Amino acid sequence: MSEPLPPRHVRLRTDRLVLRRFTPADLPAVTALCGDPEVMRYIDDGRPVPPDRVADELLPSLLRAYADLPDGLGCWALEAGGRFLGWAALHPPSSVGLEPERRPDHLELGYRLRPAARGLGYATEAATALVGAAFGERPGTERVVATTMTVNTASRRVLERAGLRHVRTFSVDWPDPIPGSEHGDVVYALTRAEWAGGTRRPAADTR
Fold first, then answer.
1. For 164, what's the count of Cα atoms within 13 Å in the CB-facing half-sphere?
2. Domains in the chain: boundaries
3. Burial letters 29-57, b for 16+ CB under 10 A, else e
4. For the whole model, what pTM was predicted?
5. Which of 4, 33, 117, 191 could form a disulfide bond with 85, CB atoms 3.0-4.6 angstroms apart?
6. Residue 175 near residue 143, CB atoms below 8 Å
7. What pairs with residue 165 in β-bridges?
């Protein structure tokens, strides 16, 4: 039986998920996630992240962010029944194409999910919970934004189910384009007013 997580390590709980802080012990899980070609198909250069880069750069940056970012922001491990499913993130806007949204009252949503965990509603559940936390816990948040490739229809459906809507398509002259990049990327967004006026899903238990 696994030891219960310290309360400060749990970001929030939903009906099926626990979103918790990463720890150094998560290195094998993060390496497998980011080393999966299917996971990385629409991310960055479309290539799996080498294990040494995960160990030396990626995971340490995720861990530092808990201290560097305001409380409640960062990248969180997704678990269901103790099984690692991937991650979900909420942080200040950083993606290419979000220049108009790089404001202190905007937050960016993101996630990565293992292929075996897809199609079961986990991504939507996690994204919806973080959108609720963005507006429900942080009075200064006025907009939640997200980006993905135009051809990434599965990710676009997740964003739509979480309440975001397509607001813009943009193109970037990538130095190493991947298949589908010729169709551009999309920005999705949800404002506080839209969130408050819509039909909310059941609230998650936060921290």
1. 31
2. 7-200
3. bbbebbbbeebbbbbeebebbebeebeee
4. 0.89
5. 117
6. no
7. 189
Give alpha helix (H) positions in 100-177.
Answer: 122-136, 153-161
CATH superfamily of 7-200: Gcn5-related N-acetyltransferase (GNAT) (3.40.630.30)
Per-residue pLDDT of the chain (207 residues; tens, 9 = 90+): 445 555 558 999 999 999 999 999 999 999 999 999 999 999 988 999 999 999 999 999 999 999 999 999 999 999 999 999 999 999 999 887 777 767 889 999 999 999 999 999 999 999 999 999 999 999 999 999 999 999 999 999 999 999 999 999 999 887 778 889 999 999 999 999 999 987 444 444 443
DSSP state, residue 98:
-
Residue 79 phi/psi, 5° resolution?
-130, 145
